[in-house]
Predict the structure.
Amino acid sequence: MTRISPVATALSLLVAAAVVLVAALPQPLEAQLPISKEHKYTGTGSCAASNCHGAKKPAAKPGDPDDTYTIWASKDKHNKAYNTLTKKESVAMAQKMKIAKATESDKCLGCHALYLSKEQMAPRAKYDVADGVSCDSCHGPAEKWLEGHDKGEKEWPHAKSVSLGMYDTKDVLKRAEQCVSCHLSIDAEMVAAGHPTMIFELDSFSQSQPPHWKDQKEWFGPLAWGTGQAVALRESADQLATRAKRNAPDKLVQESWDQTRGHAIALRALLAQVAAEAGKAVESQVAAIAEAMGKDKAKAASSASALAKTAGDLSKRLAQTKFTKDIVWTVLKAQVGDPERATSAGLRSAEQVAMAVDSLFRAVNAVAKPPEGKAIDAAIGKMFDELPTKPADFDAKKFTANLQNVAKNIK
Ligand code: HEC
Ligand code: HEC
Ligand code: HEC
């Protein structure tokens, strides 16, 4: 598994004017956020001008909005998401699913592009489905805020754009929902046809996107990590419930279960610090699913739905949690201190623990620079290098040794 290069982290510490607004949450398993019916889309071409977000040179300061388009167009895989549908892997998947063309099917375009009908486009929209996952996919329909949103916070506050249809990606919970709506649940039939398994962790994936923004709020990385974990736990538990209910093949139910446990395992140490009661509820609901797995699909499904409900409530709470250095360090210590648990759902829990360690360490290292920082950083790198991509290739002993090697310097 590739680790996010620690160098990228300098960009990461955050800003967020948390403007709380109500937006429709995506329905579990409907994937991608709903396309707005209220406002029309303007297309990536309307953001790309060199005096808007398409500066030819990288901005002087990270987080300058001038080069956001340039970063997306040159470094962000989202811009290739449509192109992926033209590749032979996609053609093979489409064939198996009896879809004529992946590039024209809403089964694929919903996540791999911004897929619009004519009526959903603003009159002079500069829209091209081949732009893939583009500005409007994450920032929402710009018809009503395109003219004006660049006037500065005083004259045109962020909240004004949000009230006119912009998605509030500055809000950590909304951001997590946004990413997870494409990055976690996927129909069992697509996985069976060869779609890659989805693995998600908000902070790590934000770093590797890479970010075209600067989050400045203190301890934003751990906040994104924790909130993202709870949202991912909800979504994976919902997916497990659906697969169990619809009688998906055992292998796919098991995959969903491993994924769910992976998120629950990574979250546990945080819940012990900031939400102990909810932590116990999660543990007992996970135990109830474990008890029913392989014996009683209906019971597994109802227990998974109960866990999803707990995790959904938790995500709102974690998004409001105030992180401190003590909390982050304690949670980091707990993550590296229990290899048995970290490996108990195989690769799926190990990679979530590895990403948790990376995310939490990155945050502490940015502010506290512990003297053992270099050694810890190298040990984390080795742990990632030796993680396989397939669950069948996972070696729990090797991972345990690597995790212990990280733990050595975390006191
Ligand atoms: C509209 C759906 C959608 C949304 C919303 C979305 N993504 Fe993605 N993302 C994709 C698709 C599709 C790909 C695969 C691109 C490709 O074809 O390689 C992807 C790829 C990525 C990758 C590259 C993964 C790799 O294997 O290298 C990262 C990192 C990523 N997304 C992070 C995020 C983050 C962070 C968010 C939220 C801020 C987000 N994504 C929101 C659909 C989405
Ligand atoms: C629920 C959203 C969703 C749907 C629906 C979806 N994908 Fe994806 N797809 C993703 C995301 C997200 C990724 C990136 C995963 C990652 O790297 O972490 C991805 C990755 C891929 C990849 C691997 C890309 C790479 O760079 O390695 C292929 C191929 C692919 N999708 C094809 C398809 C096809 C074909 C369809 C329709 C039959 C489809 N996808 C439907 C979200 C989706
Ligand atoms: C995969 C999701 C995603 C895509 C695609 C995306 N963005 Fe963003 N963008 C975000 C997130 C998350 C943030 C951080 C929160 C915020 O500032 O709103 C952000 C922030 C920004 C900011 C604010 C920067 C700052 O530091 O204040 C600008 C400007 C921006 N994006 C422009 C664009 C443009 C232009 C495009 C298309 C070329 C684009 N974004 C595509 C997710 C995305």
User: Anything to note?
Assistant: Residues 172-411 form a domain with the A middle domain of Talin 1 fold (CATH 1.20.1420). The chain has two domains: 34-166, 172-411. The chain has 18 helices and no strands. Residues 220-245 form the longest helix (26 residues).
